[in-house]
Design brief:
By secondary structure, the protein is an alpha/beta fold. The protein has 9 helices and 7 strands; from the N terminus they run αααβαβαβαβαβααββ. The longest helix is centred in the first third of the chain and has 17 residues. It is globular. The termini are far apart.
Length: 208
Amino acid sequence: MRPENLVEVFGERAPLAERYAQWLETAGIQRGLIGPREVPRIWDRHIMNSAVLEEIIEDGERVIDVGSGAGLPGIPLAIARPNVKVQLLEPLLRRTKFLEEVVEDLGLDNVEVHRGRAEEKAIVRKLAGADVVTSRAVAPLGRLCQWSLPLARVGGQMRALKGSSVAEELERDKAQIDKVGGGKRSVVELGKGVLEESTFAVIVEKAR
């Protein structure tokens, strides 16, 4: 169901968000990118939950979405923030084809689709130097930092959407994060007043 605060989040681009929801509910399910049981939760659990990432993204930043899948969180972010460059990184061909079709259909000229894995040297050479590397439900935090931080510039950040147990993950994976050059780290709550249940982002700076 169309959320009441849709325009509050997406502004005049709200129709693009609705169009994206249609893609997820049809081709997204037919191609196995979204489970059929997710249809009632497309908006709150997926689109709006991803869009609130824009609360911690600055104008003009280049953002890489690692393991983008069906385009989450990258496409909702790109719709909400047309002045942010979003690069969707996804290893599976059927998913990149879906992403390319969606990006073309929605006319998202601030989005690029790249096929590959974050840990591939060729991908790092091609995309490294991003201001922000994001993801959603991709991997445990330590491994996520191993994949994400090499794609960021020094001083850039991994800003990944995570569940409420993220503080425990930070403590558990501290050594792994340090090993790959992770510096200052924090957890922020996103979506207050927008989502029924707010979500969290873990922020890890690339120190070296």
